[in-house]
Amino acid sequence: MTADGPVTADGPLTADGPLTARAPMADPGQARAAARAIAAAALGRDPGPMATAASGSHHVYVGSDAVVKLIDAGSHARLNREIALAPQLPAGLAAPLLGSGTHRLETGDEVRYACYARVPGTAPGMGLPGVDAATARALAEEAVERLGRLHAWVPGGRADRTLRETLDHGGFTGRAAFLAEIDHIAEHDRNAAVPPHLLDGLRAIARDAPPHARAVVPVHADCHWDNWLAHGPSVTALLDFEWARFGDPVDDWFFLIRFSGPHMETVLDVVARATGTPPDTLRAGCEVREATHLAADLRVALERPDVHARMAEDRLRSLEELIVGRYWWRPATPPAPPLSPPVTSGAASGAAGGLA
Questions:
Q1: What does pTM read for this prediction?
Q2: Taking the mean position of all CA atoms in its chain, how far away is CA 20?
Q3: Could you give the percent of the chain with pLDDT greater than 90?
Q4: 29 within 8 A of 327, measured Cβ to Cβ
Q5: Cα–Cα distance measured from residue 254 to residue 268, given in angstroms and rounded to the nearest whole number
Q6: What does the alpha-carbon distance between residue 128 and residue 137 come to, in Å, rounded to a whole number?
């Protein structure tokens, strides 16, 4: 278990405003002391030094054998999703949950926490930097196998109820909702910041999209390469199930493929072969997912232009690459620098749970 996936400089968002970003603790020293106490209780011994890990959605502290995620008790509740799902997830898929609950700081403030066993490995990183072609293929094969186990999982009880909860994840839910999102962009674009050809391009993608999104299997919905751990060519864990829900497997294939940098075509080939999906079908499904995530992020940015101007600029550049550059259909070429994941995913993606 390591820190959450990256977020944009504007902070992760949902349609209702900031959600992923955690407020700073009033006393960081107390937060660290709380993390050590929580880890000690879970391990039954002193956890040793615990370093602060970067995270946009929680306060995360990493020791040699445990990782503790903290958040103010009154902040967003997505950590509760992880806690609900962890005991039932397929064996070996995620970092084991050692303990969870609430902890009272000396100030009297309460924090919610989850303590996980630290799994060997490091995150391959957005765009798979420094990864050679053979290792990229090996990592993709293992990631696809693990996601296959997730998609085949039949959750029950609390896990099933959690996955069925409605989330403003910014992903594809159906053609009509996608077209409505595009109309919202046009309505909120008071300064005509969005070129007409980009709106036309989004509408063209939407018109070709399926009428309804399937919600038939558990999906992670934020499985870019910052949310995996790997040791050499082997995947060791999938992290951060804050945005997990019922969806379509392509909701996960999109994240895996899109954020593979120069290895995008290799990872697409791995997914297509492993799942028996025709490559063009996979490209079309991924294009729809990227377009809906970008549209959701852009709409949020346009609703609050004074706060999210940089995000709007970034999403417009990404839409140019998607629509004008025909990203999913162009011949393989050296790619642009890797993107950050959607913040309304996967994500609001941290996303989702959050394209930057």
A1: 0.86
A2: 11
A3: 74
A4: no
A5: 9
A6: 11
Angle at which helices 279-303 and 249-258 cross, to 10°: 80
CB count, 10 Å around CB of 311? 23
Is residue 92 a contact partner of residue 82, using CB atoms and an 8 Å limit?
A: no
d(CA 238, CA 93): 6
Within 13 Å of residue 355, how many CA atoms lie on the same side as its CB?
26
3-state class (DSSP) for residue 24:
coil
DSSP string over 222-273 = ---GGGEEEETTEEEEE---TT-EEE-HHHHHHHHHHT-GGGHHHHHHHHHH
Residue 343: pLDDT band with limits 50, 70, 90: low
What ranges in the chain are assigned the alpha helix state H?
A: 28-43, 78-85, 133-152, 157-163, 175-188, 196-208, 249-258, 264-275, 279-303, 309-319
Cβ atoms of 40 and 64 within 8 Å: the answer is: no
Q: Is 322 helix (H, G, I), strand (E, B) or coil?
A: helix
Task: Give 242: exposed, middle or buried? Use CB within 10 Å, 0-12, 13-18, 19+.
Answer: buried
d(CA 124, CA 339): 14
Give the pLDDT band (50/70/90) at residue 355: very low
Residues 54 and 29: their CA atoms lie apart, in Å, by 16
In whole angstroms, what is the distance from residue 272 CA to residue 270 CA? 6
Cα–Cα distance, 128 to 264 (Å, whole number): 10
Take residue 186 and report the two structure tokens written for it: 């046009």
Q: Do residues 153 and 181 make contact, with C-beta atoms less than 8 angstroms apart? A: no
pLDDT digits (tens, 9 = 90+) for 265-324: 999 999 999 999 999 999 999 999 999 999 999 999 999 988 898 999 999 999 999 999
The predicted-structure confidence for 20-59, as pLDDT tens digits, reads as follows: 455 555 567 788 899 999 999 999 999 999 999 887 788 9
Instruction: Please compute the mean of the pLDDT values over residues 151-171 and round it to a whole number.
Output: 94
Sign, CA dihedral 107-117-225-129, equals positive
pLDDT tens per residue across span 235-249: 999 999 999 999 999
What tokens were used for 232?
């050499």
